[in-house]
C-alpha cells in the first residue's frame, strides 16, 4: 500500500521483488480489485503493480481531467519507485492510459494489452452529460446501472454478490474525480495516431461488450501495426471479472511471448520471441447460457477514422472550445446546415467568439456561462438560451446555480423575459440531468 502525494497514484505490489514489472490499470468506477482473479497466476512470472484512479477505492480525491495527466501521475509514481520498464495491461480508461504510454513514452513499455478499450470512447457529449448527471444527482444512478453496462445478464443474475460489489464500488467513488475522469474520456481521441504504436499489443474484448465491443477492438487492431485480437465469448465490459480464467490465460501467453527488448540492450528484460497468433482459451460458461466454442484470435480489417485537416490558428482553437462547451451534436448540426451563404458567418463566430473571447484567460467558463445566460435572457434569444443552458451544465454550473442566475436576471431584464427563460431552462435541465434508462 502507499501514501499518495497529489502528483502520484495509490498503488500496491504483489509478486517477487526481482521479477519484471507488469502493471494492471483499472476501468472508470472500479478499483484495483477488478484484477484480483488474475493476480495469483500472473505473480508466478511478474511483479504485479496495480493502481487506483484518483478518488477510487479510497484513493485521495485529486481529480485528473485528462488521460495525459493520469499517465503523468502513473509515471511519477513509477519513477519514485525506480521502475523504468514494464509490461502494461489496462481496461477501458486504464487501456487509454496504455495507449498514451505507447504513443508518448514507448521506451518504457515492453508489451501492451488493451482490454475493453477504444481509440475513442463513444462521444464527448455522452461523457460530458454523464458528468452533468453526477453533478446533479450524485453517483447513485450511475452505480445502480453499472452492472447492466459491465456484465452480461446471465452473469449478473447468477452472481448477486459480485453485482452488489460493483454497485458499491461505484457508489463509494469521489464524484468530483468521477466527473474529471469522464472529462478525460470525453477528450481522448487517438484514432489518427494508432499507426505510431510500436509495442506488441494484445487487444482483448468480450463478445457481448456493449460499451467498447468487438467493433472498437477491430479498429485498434487495424490501426496498430503489431496487434492481435482476442474475443472472449460470454463476457461483457468487465471481462477480467466475468471470465477471469480466459483473461488470465491470454495475458500470460501474450506477456510471455511478446515482451520486447528495451531500446538500451544493457537493461534486463525477458527475451523477445517471434510474434505468434494468440489462442483464446475456452471461457467459463455464463450460468444462464450454454458453453460456446472459443473463437480463434483474429485480425480483421477496420476503418480508422481520421480527423480532416483544420483551418489552423484561432479557428481550430475556437472549434475545439465550441465543441467542448456546446457539444459535438449541436456543433455538427450547425455546421451541417452551413452553406455558401452562411459559411463566412460561421467561420467568424468560431474564430472570434469561440477562438478569441471564450479562450481569454480572464474569466473561467462557469463565469462566462453566467454572463451569456443573462445576455440571452435580456435579448429574448430563447433558442440560443436552450443551447447555453446545456453549455452551462457542461461548464460545471448546477441547476440551483442556473436558477439563481435566472432570478438575478428577472430583476434586471424583466419578469416576462425571465418567465420565458425559466420555461426553457426547466425543460433543458430536466432532459440533461435525468439519468439514462
3D structure, described in words:
By secondary structure, the protein is an alpha/beta fold. Helices cover 49% and strands 9% of the residues. Strands 1-3-2-4-5-6-7 form a 7-stranded mixed β-sheet, sandwiched between helices. Strand 4, helix 3 and strand 5 form a beta-alpha-beta unit. 43% of the residues are buried. The model is unreliable at 264-311 (pLDDT under 50).
**Over the alpha carbons, how many angstroms does the gyration radius reach?**
23 Å
Low-confidence stretches: 264-311
Summarize the main sheet.
7 strands, mixed
Count of helical regions: 18
How many beta strands in the DSSP annotation?
7
Proportion of helical residues: 40-55%
End-to-end Cα distance: 38 Å
Q: Topology as H/E string?
A: EEHEHEHEHHHHHEHEHHHHHHHHH
Form type = elongated
What topology, given as strand order, has the largest sheet? 1-3-2-4-5-6-7
Strand content: 5-15%
> Helices and strands: which structural class?
alpha/beta
- The averaged pLDDT comes out at 87
Summarize the model shown:
This protein is an alpha/beta fold and 437 residues long. It is 49% helix and 9% strand.
